[in-house]
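Intended use. Records like the one below are meant for learning the mapping from a protein sequence to its folded structure. Do not use them to infer anything beyond what is encoded.
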Amino acid sequence: MRAIVIGGGIGGLTTALALHAAGIGAEVFEAAAEVRPLGVGINLQPHAVRELTELGLGEALAAAGVATREFVYANRFGQEIWAEPRGLAAGYRWPQYSIHRGRLQMLLWRAAAERLGAARLHTGRRLLGIEQDGAGVTARFADGGTARGDLLVAADGIHSAVRAQFFPGEGPPKWNGCILWRAVSLASPFRTGASMVQAGHRDRKFVCYPIGQAADGRAEINWIAEQRFPADHVWAREDWNRRADPAAFLPLFADWEFGWLSVPALIRAAEAVYEFPMVDRDPLPWWTQGRATLLGDAAHPMYPIGSNGASQAILDARFLALQLATQPGIEAGLAAYEAARRPATAAVVEANRGDGPDRVMDIVHARAPEGFARLEDVVSREELEATVTAYKRIAGMDPATLNARPSWSVPARPAG
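Structure written out for the chain above:
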């Protein structure tokens, strides 16, 4: 069995590695002429770290990222609303990592080159479309070349060419009115030194967490500033490489001084800031046509709420490889993959549209917009815990369930 994987991002590379580990040949075709460590920070939740660890990448992840120890929700004054341990400290068998997206992609690229062979990783191959017959799939590229496989996995992102071929009338991604400004700044560590903080509310929010450490002891802190705009605001096509001027949004956060964290100082310390409108797409009625299927952002682009976008792509990849290796035929494997992963990810997309676990900030802001003297006068611990716990169940990251779930690794076949 030979699979064509379209896209050399996190989802595509994890798919190639998972297929290879399951005994299925894979070849990756990436549109960019060169794979470079672009982007800013992301989070890998324990359910995704489990899958990468079982692919033999646990030590590399630990060296490349920061094991998150604490997660905190606060209001725009820095008053704590909710704090909980994360990763191993929360009872998971696997850590949670905060990591630079580019470092993670390069880690996966190197692993794929070593295991699959560099000749099976292609750059500068922008997909135009696919054609199928009873025996397989042919991919046609902009450079005039083609590739032939027994199946094709489209992990080519929110602007997926395969998704557009499957659903030609879908149109552009849906914008929810929020603009994100993202950057990495060198600054002093805050709280535990491995804390992830979200402060504010639905219409104005600030998120920050460390993704590494500089030689002088300062932390590399990834941050996201978010502002909601009127429905008629004009926004540009999302592009992680579009630079932004901090002066355009710094006044929105000028007085966000928490004592333990200075938001304006963190913004001013950034060398480069990137702008991105918060977009997603509606869940699809199906992902698979013949021997071709969608994966990751091509299948279920979601708002970056709950830190689950990359993690869900990694779960897709591992579950797909397991089904292709254990079901009686390619079509059966693709059907089993979609039957499990499409409703699961659709639920996360919808939960993120409702602000996911971030709703705890919205609840407190609605009841105490000018801050509070005692949190318990505003909201009960039980209400906060119910909101946070419900999202973990939806996203597949409830500790007890994840710890008890059987592995998605393909069982080793007996020798001889």
